[in-house]
Structure formats: C-alpha cells, structure tokens
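User: Run a structure prediction on this.
Assistant: Running it now.
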Amino acid sequence: MKRKIKIGIDVGGTFTHAVAVNAITYEIITKSYLPTTHTSTEGVARGVVDVMHKLLQEGKIEPDEVTLIAHSTTQATNALLEGDVARVGIIGLGSGLETARARRETQVGDIELAPGKFIHTCYRFIDIGKGLAPEQVRTAIEALRAEGAQVIVASESFGVDNPENEEKVVRTAVEMGLAANAASSISQLYGLRIRTRTAVINASMLPKMLETANMTEDSVRASGIRAPLMVMRSDGGIMDINEMRRRPILTMLSGPAAGVAAALMYARVSDGIFIEVGGTSSDISVIRNGRPLVRSAIVGGHKLYIRTLDVRTVGVAGGSMPRINKNQIVDVGPRSAHIAGLKYPAFSDMKDVTSLSTELIQPKPGDPDDYLKIIAENRAEAYTLTPTEAANYLELAPDVGYGRGRMDSIEKALRHLAEQWHSEANKIATRVLDLACAKIIVVIEQLIKEYKLDRSLVQLVGGGGGAAALVPYTAQVMKLPQQIADNSEVISAIGAALGIIRDAVERTIINPTEEDIVKLRSQAIASVQRMGAAPDSIEVTIDIDRQTKRVTATATGASELRFKELGKAPLSQNELRALSAASLKVESEQVRLTAQTSMLKVFSVMQVEKKLWGLVRTEKKPARVIDQEGVIRLQLSDADVWSGRAAEASTFLLQAIENLTIFGDAGALLPDIFMLLGRKIIDMTGLVEKEQIISLAKIETEKSDPDEKVVVLASSR
C-alpha cells in the first residue's frame, strides 16, 4: 500500500530543513538539511530544490507517494531588505471631482525599504472621465517602459468597487510583455495611498519571484512529483504557487509563520505563547482560541494592507555569545557562535584539550569588542559559552532537538571560566540564562498585557533547535507551564508540511449587513477551495473593526480531511475527562461533561473564589473543549454553556447575549461567543452586533440537520 506523504521545507537563516510527514498519522518519516543558499544565483530556491531531492533519496520516497509539497521562503523578505527589486511604473486612474485626489494619492514616489534601499517608481496619470481608450493605456505603458519600468501597477480611486479599468491596464501590460498587477487585486480596502503602496511593493518583487516560482515548480515536476506545490504565507497559512505568482508580498515573514503553523497543527496548541528559538534569534508569537494573532504589515516604516502574524523577534537564542566587562557577564547576544566562527562546547569533544585561555573579540566589523572567546591552546579550535551550555549545566535542558550536549565538555569550559573569574560555575551559568531570558520575558509580558491574555491559560511552547536552552528557564522564572514541541529542531518544516490553506478577504464597509457578511464569507471560501481545500474542512471567521470600518473574512481549510483518515480509535470519555482535568488543574472527579457535539466534548468545573475572609464569594466555570484525539481545542477561564439542537442555535445565542452583555460608558459590550457544530468551532468574538452573530449562526447551520447537536459557549469580556 502506497504511503501518503507531505513534504515541508523551511528556509532558515543558516540551514534549510526538510521533513517528510505521514499525512495520516503525522509521524516523521525522514528529515534532512542543507546550508541555506543565500549566495546562489537562484537564491534560496536552489536550497529548496536540493534539500527536496536529498529528502526523497534518503527517505526512499517515490514521487507518487507525495500528496503535497510546501515551503517557506525568505526570498521576498531578502529582496526587500537588500533592495533587489524591480523599478515599478504606476498608472493612476481617476475622473471628475476625484481626479486631483487620485493623482496625488497614486503618485507614491520612491519607497524606502531600509537605509539606502529603495523601490524606484515612475508615474503616469490617465483621466478616465470620458472612458479608458486602449491607445491611452499603451502610450502610458510605453512611456513608463522608456523610463525603465519593469513591471506595471494600475490604481484607480474606488477601484475596489469596480476594478474593470485597472484590469484593462493589467491585460494591456501583459500583452506588451510586462508583468503587472491591479491595486484592487492586492487589497480590497479603501485608502488609495496605502492600497497603491502595497501594490507597488508587491509588483517590485514580481519579476524575481516569478523566476523563483518557475524554477522551483519546474524542478519539482522534473522529479516526477505531481502533487500540489504550496508556499507559506505570512499569516500562518499556505497558498498554491500560482497565488504566489500573483501576490508574492503575502510570503513576507513566512519563516516564522511556518513555526506557528506547526504549533497549531502538530503541537496542537489552543492557547499559548510560541517561542521559536534558533541559533541567533528567537521569534515570539501568541496563539489564542486556536488562532494566531495577526497585524498589519509594516515595511520600511510604511503601513501596508497585508496581514502578517504578530511575531516579535529578539536577538537572543541558543547560540548567543556573552559580553564581558571586568570578568563579569554584562550581556548575552545578539551575536551568535556560528556567525563568529566559534564552536559550542556542548557539541564538541574536548577530552584532549589540556589548557584553555580566553580573550575578548569583535566577531564582525562594527560589533562591540567584548564578546567571549575560549581558546583550546593545544588545538586549532575556539569556543564560546552560550545558553545551551548554561541550561545543560543547570540540568534544565531536556533531551529534545539540539538541547542535550556533552556534559564533560561543558564542565571543562565552565570550570575554566570559574577559576579565571574567581566565581562558581553554577553562578556563571545562571547569569547567562538570567540575561538571555530577561529579553524574552520582556516581550512575553508585553504580549500578555497588549492582548489582555488570561495568565491562567498561558503556556509557553518551545520550537526550534535552541528551544531547550531558553524556554524551560523562562517558564521557571515566570512560573508558567511549558512544553517543548516534538521534533522541535525541524518544527518550521513540519509547519510547512501540515500548513492549513488560508486566505483572507477584507473590505471597508460602514455598516455591514447580513448580505455583506455572506458575500465576503463566500469569497473567502471560494478562494481556499480554488487552492485545494476540502469543502467540509473549511472554517470561516469574521472580524469587524468598528474604528477602521474594516470587515475581514478569514477562511481556512485542509487539503484533505485528517479526521476521516485517522486509523486510531477515538479516546474514551474517561480519558478525555482526565485530559481536561489536567488542563483545568483539578481532579478528574471534579470535572463534568457539560455538553457535546458529534465530534467535540465540553468539560467544565465549578470553582468558588473567596475574598475578604470569605465574605465575598465569586463563582467561576472554567471550560475546556476537547476533540476525539484528546486535543484541547478551546479553553475558557469562565463560560456559560447552552446545548441542544441546531435549530435552537439562535435562541441560545440570544440568551447568551442577553445574560452576559455588559453596558458601560462606551455602550454595549457583547460577550465572547463560540458555537460548536460537528468538528467546527465557530469563533464569533470578532463580531460587534447581535444581528451579525445571529446571521452568522444561520449561515453556519442552514445546511445542517435541524436535530444535529449544537453547543454555545459565552464568556464576559
């Protein structure tokens, strides 16, 4: 019987990792890596192709066993950072009273990406008051090409309402041999200047990314693989390679996004802070209610109409070097051992080293000159001290990923430093971790405060090769639970392989009606279906921002339904109760089954908090939603629950809104509401009006059997 295999490839700063994953059991079949090909003429795409072939050979994988290939890429990010972009010709369109404003806002000028790095633009405007003649378009394009334009952007005032003119320009440009995109195809939000700027940045990457996409796809097809070729998006989903050809801007920051995708799909985190620790830096992001948190992208200080994961990068990781002043460690990072060309004692055989000495160095020009270097005097080798050695010495590093090292070499290095600095080895190791983890703790505390996270639900989840060096100690200091994901060293490659197909449709709508919500929802569903998502797997969330008038429909779906293919039996109710009790931090006997659908169960417990010597009693009902595999899909610190038939969903929702809405100076604040139907958790927390919640419930239940079980959970904000 042929295996079903998904291949995931992650392009990191140092290595490109690849994994082959059993699509049914999620078991790792084989994994491989090669140095990332930053200096290749084909860029990082060369490494993607080479590591794929290595993986196929080492895993003895036949081409027809592969059901999907997905990879993250740094190509778009590198292009922007390095200024390796095309000159963009902009054609602004407008008429009537909008002419002056359209001319002003579509002429965005040169866009600074980084100090000294720009996207250069040239510009023509066409007044379309009397229509848009083909000759006008060709003349404008020829003029822009004469000024060096390699790609064209068409942007019209209110083009999102009627993109016909923008599309005419794009078709003409393509006929004339130039790549092109319409601003309305990149974003459907109002805001002409930001929409045009976003389209220009996207267009500037088109020639390079088209070349990369074609090379990658040709190589994959030449290997005999006919499976879909997908690319990680910056919001944590995946899209097919044809979509990358149209909107390469969506792949910015797709490396960190792959790690978050793995936390969701592989580590199955529903609420937590994911810390992906590499050798040089750590990426920190929040997962809440089974969803990664996103924000508007910013490039070179310019806000764009593109959503990316809210990933905070910290310049400290498993290989960070200490800085020294008067025999005291005063800082850790941002420079790392491998960048300085130094070895980790944890991964070195130092048995034959007879004597050590130290000196302070400047790893790269422009760096401080106080980084620690440890020299083996009887060898042509040099080392440093990193958080990896510190965590091992303090017995905090679990044996996962690249966590566990050689204790004999670690002790030799630390003993030498303790003697030289008249200190103790454990104090030195603790100092390294205190300084390194403090940088991560600051960011975690900021995220908890910024997103108003319930601290009782927060756990730290570590991924990346250096996770064992920093995550356990960070959790210990913060008194938070933690876990290191299985196969953490290739977690981002796993995330690419298991990524969920995703797309978001955004519109500016002043007062969104039921019809508006249905239309956006349908567009989002159609988009992920075109990219291969199985219809029964698609889930849609609607977010409405009252301040910006932005309505976002985000659709996610799997390329195949994992729950239909799983060969293992579902867990028993007692096993699910025990897992829920562990999550709730109570004994199993205290937990009761509150409600259930055909695929999900809700367990809860009654807790009484006493204050003021018992005079004030507060009741809380924390709840956990768990699936048949034992994965906690949703956790709420206090929730009311209604359950019954799908036909009664609207009644339950009205009761939840009536009972739990809070009225204040800012008006009515609706509760956080979730509806469970079958295997789906329908998140309604982004909706701001009662009518919108009821409308969405009707849409979700209209195709269900009226007698199908439905559950509503609501929690006051």
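The chain is about 35% helix and 30% strand.
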